[in-house]
Amino acid sequence: MAAKNSGVNTANVRDAVTAFRSSKDKEGEHFLVIGYSDKATLAVVAEGSGFADAAKTHLPADEARYVLLRKDLKVEMAKTVKFAFIDWTPSTLAPLKRALVGTHKGQLKELVGSVHAAVQASEASEVSDDIINGKIGDASGTSSKVTTAAATPSKADQKAASPPPAASPTAAPTKTWKEQQAERKASGSVSISSPPKAAGGVPTTTGGLKFTDEKAFTDAVKSLRSENGPTWLLSNWAAKDTINLVATGNGDVSEFVEKLEDDNVNFALVRVLDIVDGKSKTLKFAYIKWQPESVAPMKKAAIGTKKGDIDKLFEPFHVNLQTGTKTEITQAAIEDKVKSASGTKSNVK
To answer: pLDDT tens digits, residue range 291-300?
Structure first.
């Protein structure tokens, strides 16, 4: 049975997703590809061993598909399982199909459940093992610590891969972002677990999106990414292709929940302090999309076609939540998602 007002039937794949996530027999890397058997019914297209590179062979240029990836990892010698989600909406997809699948995004995210990394892709170059592994590492805050079952490189290989020494022995080398973060962590200071985008965290391109006040929006995102700025910002879909900054605040998420609109789509970015090993403090970011059932179908479709561009405005973020239920947006729920994604809560079962 199709979910109420969703327009897409997920019953045929729900059991497959549950089995894929909960299986205790899987080891290594696996993928599950979901497509459409007709315009309103989802079906499992492919399933097998391998990761993003293997799954992308099942992503056609004229159909929307969705991929759930599963990967065994070792983080600080502890085994855990990470999940990633690929939303494949090719650039060559017919406009009517694009608008239709845009209305299904919320239900698809509910179907696949919580993941550690998500990618909105429209070109084959945006899907690869390296891209997904990088996003999982960034989201976990363990990019330099994540290992797979692959053999450790030999000392000779490591030496060959090392960059050449600086031309001038007297010049102080420029430290990388990771080196700066390592120093901050050693000193016990707060660190941001992903490098910021250009211009203080706001992408330099906006995919044709407009703003009621672009500077106000940009400044709000930049300020939120500093440890002394506001802890949340809320925006909305003001008009066609236009994003509006609604408010910012220094409290928990309950401050903006009361501002969510019953007939519109809101976008929020939240800063969360995650404590690793009881002492290292790391800043994490959660992206929330509020889309209640009462939003007009045409508005949902219009926003769906701009999903990738909108998401980029709030990157980088470590977890995301799309919901139309206010009770799902609580400080405890957001912090729980962050801890689950970073591995500071417990291993994923």
So the answer is: 999 999 999 9
Measure the CA–CA gap between 260 and 330, rounded to whole angstroms.
13
- pLDDT tens digits along 201-252: 444 445 678 999 999 999 999 999 988 889 999 999 998 889 999 999 999 9
Q: What b/e readout covers 244-267, taking b as 16+ CB neighbours within 10 angstroms?
A: bbbebeeebbebbbeebeeebbbb
Q: How many domains does the chain have?
A: 2
β-strand partners of 75: 78
Residues in the chain: 349
CA 321/CA 270 separation, integer angstroms: 11
Domain that holds residue 44: 11-140
Q: Give the residue from 110, 140, 170 where a domain finishes.
A: 140
Q: Tell whether 31 and 102 lie within a shared domain.
A: yes
Confidence at residue 59, expressed as pLDDT on a 0 to 100 scale = 93
What the block records as the tokens of 42 is 């989802």
Is residue 70 within 8 A of residue 81, CB to CB? The reply is yes
Judgement on whether residues 19 and 103 belong to the same structural domain of the protein: yes
| DSSP one-letter string for 259-286 | T--TTS-EEEEEEEEEEETTTEEEEEEE
For residue 157, what is the enclosing H or E element? helix 155-161
Res. 200: pLDDT tops 90: no
pLDDT in tens, 101-123: 888 877 888 888 888 888 888 88
CA distances from 67 to 109, 321, 347 (A): 11, 18, 22
